[in-house]
Structures are given as structure tokens and as C-alpha cells.
Design goal:
Helix 1 runs parallel beside helix 4. The chain is α+β, with helices and mostly antiparallel strands. The chain is globular, with a radius of gyration of 21 Å. The protein binds flavin-adenine dinucleotide.
Length: about 400
């Protein structure tokens, strides 16, 4: 069984629909919400229904809620929801990645739910728009250092702690909160909890002003004696020392390819726009001739295209492995590292190739360069992805290589 890099025919209508949404709704509102930071993008409400349809049908969709891992390895090649979601997120992010991060019910918290929830929980929270809250003032890259606590009390857990930089934390209907059941038991005791908006003890303290993805709200949330039903602990409540962090970390195997897809979408947008601008300036790009026999701008552009292509193929592989029930932690980190780094490099290089036009606000190139940076930071920074890849390739544990 091997991967075929062609887009499967069954996904084409979905991908076309995602591109139409990107071109007709997201792109035309891109600058508006970049300038009006913190204003709610009302245009997105009607899109949720468009995205829900395919997700409900089990064929994946343009948002994060569709990712759920197939159990066990299959002998037959399967192109499933991870692949279709990656391909459609690429398209919508081509329209505007900040608006994609604000799309109702398609938050990274939804991917977290889809990844680790039991079937009963998936039925209960499947239509909830969920943000994901891991980061704290004293813990970012080292997510095992989480201090937010969850203490069992009767039929509830009581949460106490502070979460920062929660994407969609103000707008979403719920937040998936990572908290520890027992700090003394280390990583294995970290579990995720669905906390619904309006739960007493959960308070949004502020929203950040940012370099990029300004259409997306980024919130700080405090939890003070916040009671959530015990049934809102996602997956198993057992502290399984031998599994370590595996339960909660499983989320990343599904979400990192999605962030890589966002990076591919933003950089594809920059490449498409730059090719058009170069064409108007009389620079011909010939894909059939060696780059070095072409004008410098065309040669540079072809290198960027090659960089994009390798990030694209790596991302498809990570999603395809998940669809086929195979381990993909290594490939998910490779895809995130490659696509995140390529997106920042490509978008900035496109600004450079377009000169003053690239830097000005009349075009979106400068915005895409700002938006791309976060894709190399959240869901694990570039350096952390490289660390994970190195550990996996060298067979080292997190204590041996840090
Ligand atoms: C706009 C935005 C949205 C976000 N959305 C979310 C969200 O929805 N949910 C959420 O939980 N978090 C979110 N985050 C937080 C994000 O995931 C963290 O910022 C990220 O994980 C890095 O953590 P940190 O900022 O604490 O940096 P640190 O961990 O302090 O790292 C600082 C620098 O040191 C490097 N570094 C750290 N450790 C190592 C190491 N061992 N080896 C080499 N280099 C290392 C890092 O790569 C980084 O460059 C968001 C952040 C931003 C800016």
C-alpha cells in the first residue's frame, strides 16, 4: 500500500466548494478584519452550515472537526477525513487563514474532541465550537509543565488555573482545557476537559493585539473553582503511567497536519499573487526550463514553488498515515516544521519579489507575511518540531534529548 499524491476524485467537489468559499467570502473580507481587530466576522456564521454538512456526512470537511483516527491498520489504501480535511483547509486558508481560525465549530478544540473523545462525547460535543487551551503563563513549549489543576469532587471536576493565548477563546462555545489530575504523577496525569462558555468560574480576562491573524481572537482565560461534569473529561480518566503523555499528545498527531495545511494555503496565496504580479511586470516563469537559465526573479520563484511542493507532499503523507491507522507523530511534526518554516520564508520572499507593491497595504502580500508567522509557532514551535523529529529518528526519549 502506498500513497498516491493525486487528489482523489471523490474529494474534488469538496475542495472546489472550499475554494469557492475562500474566493467569494473569505478573501473579500480579508483586509476588513485585519484592520478591524477584535470585531466579530459576522460573514462566517452562514459558512458554518456549509462546513457542517460534509463533516456530518463523514467525508471530512473544510474544518478541523472532521479528523478522527481510523482504528488499526487497513490493508486497503484509504483516503479518509484527515486527508480531505487537510486538502480543504489548504483551500480555505488560501482565502484567509485568520478567518479560518474564527470559523464556528471548526476550532482546534474540535480537532482535539474528534481525536480523543469517546463516541458518546463526540455525539454530545460534535456540534460545539471549541477552542483549545494548553498554554499558561509558565508553560508553552513544555506542555508537561502544566499547572492548571482538576480535582475530582463528587460528579464534577473543579478546575483552577490560568490559560493564555487561546485562539477563539472568547468567541467559541467551549474551551478544551488541559489540566493535571495530580502534578506528582507527571505527564500521564494531564487530561483534557470540555468547559462550556458561561460555566461559573471561567472568565475571559483579555484579548491580545497581534502581529498577524488579527481576525482571530486570542484570549486569556482564568479558571477559579470552575466546576465541570466528570463526563466532560475527554477519553479515559485513568492515569496510565506507561502511556505517559500519549493520550493528550495524540491530539497533536491530528492537529499538526491541519496547521501545516493552513501554512500551505497562505503560502499558495502569496505564490499565486506574486506570479500574477511578475507576469504583469513582464517576467515569464517557465516551469519546463532549468531555473538558472531564467531571469533571477523567475528562478527565485521556481525555488519557492519547489519548497512549497515538498511541504505539500510531507503534509499529505502525515494525513494519509492517520487515515490508514498508522503512527504518524514523526510525519506530523515533519509536516508542521516544513510547512511552517516554508510559509514564513515564502510569504516574506514574495514581499521582496514584489518590491514596494509587496510591502504596501493595497495588496495582501504584507498581510500574508504577518499571518504566516504564527503557523511556525502554535501547536509546537519550529524548534520543538525539530526536537521531536530528532528524538524519533535517533530513538531518544524526552529526558535524553531536550
Ligand atoms: C496568536 C497565538 C495563538 C495561540 N493559540 C493557542 C491556542 O489556541 N492554544 C494554546 O494552548 N496555545 C496557543 N498559543 C500558544 C503557543 O502554542 C505557544 O506560544 C507556543 O507553544 C510557544 O510557547 P511559549 O510562547 O511559551 O514560548 P517558549 O516555550 O517559552 O519558547 C520560546 C522560544 O524558545 C524555543 N524553545 C523552547 N524550548 C526549546 C527547546 N527545548 N529547544 C530549542 N528551542 C526551544 C521556542 O521554539 C521559542 O522560539 C498561541 C500563541 C499565539 C502567539
Amino acid at each position: 500500500m502506498s500513497i498516491n499524491p493525486e487528489v482523489p476524485a471523490t474529494f474534488r467537489p469538496l475542495i472546489k466548494q472550499a475554494r469557492d468559499v475562500a474566493a467569494q467570502v473569505l478573501r473579500p473580507n480579508s483586509r476588513k478584519y485585519d484592520l478591524a481587530e477584535h470585531e466579530y466576522p459576522v460573514e462566517l456564521d452562514m459558512l458554518a452550515a456549509v462546513v457542517d454538512g460534509p463533516n456530518d456526512g463523514g467525508t471530512g470537511g473544510a474544518g478541523a472537526a472532521g479528523v478522527r483516527r481510523e482504528k488499526g491498520g487497513s490493508v486497503k489504501n484509504r483516503n479518509g477525513t484527515n486527508l480531505s480535511t487537510v486538502l480543504s483547509i489548504l483551500e480555505v486558508a488560501w482565502g484567509d487563514v485568520a478567518l479560518v481560525l474564527s470559523m464556528p465549530r471548526q476550532g482546534l478544540g474540535n480537532a482535539a474532541i474528534a481525536s480523543v473523545a469517546t463516541d458518546e462525547q463526540l455525539a454530545r460535543f460534535g456540534r460545539t465550537w471549541a477552542a483549545m487551551a494548553i498554554t499558561e503563563p509558565g508553560c508553552g513549549s513544555d506542555s508537561a509543565a502544566i499547572r492548571t489543576t482538576a480535582v475530582r469532587d463528587g460528579d464534577d471536576y473543579v478546575l483552577n488555573g490560568e490559560k493564555i493565548y487561546v485562539t477563539a477563546g472568547q468567541r467559541a462555545d467551549a474551551v478544551v482545557v488541559w489540566a493535571t489530575l495530580d502534578r506528582a504523577q507527571g505527564r500521564a496525569a494531564i487530561k483534557s476537559f470540555v468547559v462550556e462558555k458561561g460555566t461559573p468560574g471561567m472568565e475571559v480576562e483579555r484579548v491580545e493585539r497581534k502581529l498577524g491573524i488579527r481576525a482571530s481572537d486570542t484570549a486569556s482565560i482564568r479558571f477559579t473553582d470552575c466546576r465541570v461534569p466528570a463526563a466532560n473529561l475527554l477519553g479515559s480518566a485513568e492515569i496510565e503511567a506507561e502511556r505517559g503523555f500519549a493520550g493528550a499528545m495524540q491530539t497533536f498527531d491530528n492537529t499538526r497536519p491541519l496547521v501545516a495545511a493552513m501554512a500551505l494555503g497562505v503560502s499558495r496565496a502569496a505564490l499565486d499573487e506574486t506570479r500574477a504580479l511578475l507576469g504583469r511586470a513582464g517576467v515569464e516563469i517557465d516551469y519546463d526550463r532549468p531555473a538558472l537559465s531564467q531571469p533571477a526573479a523567475a528562478a527565485t520563484f521556481l525555488q519557492l514553488e519547489a519548497d512549497w511542493e515538498s511541504a505539500y507532499l510531507t503534509t499529505l503523507e502525515a494525513a494519509w498515515l492517520a487515515d490508514n491507522g498508522r503512527p504518524n507523530s514523526l510525519q506530523a511534526s515533519m509536516a508542521k516544521a516544513k510547512a511552517g518554516r516554508s510559509a514564513t520564508a515564502i510569504t516574506l520572499r514574495c514581499v521582496q519579489l514584489a518590491g514596494a507593491t509587496g510591502y504596501g497595504e493595497r495588496e495582501l502580500l504584507e498581510k500574508w507575511a504577518r499571518d504566516a508567522k504564527i503557523l511556525d509557532i502554535f501547536e509546537g514551535t519550529q524548534q520543538i518540531q525539530q526536537l521531536i523529529v530528532a528524538r524519533r529518528l535517533l530513538g531518544k526519549s524526552s529526558t535524553e534529548l531536550k
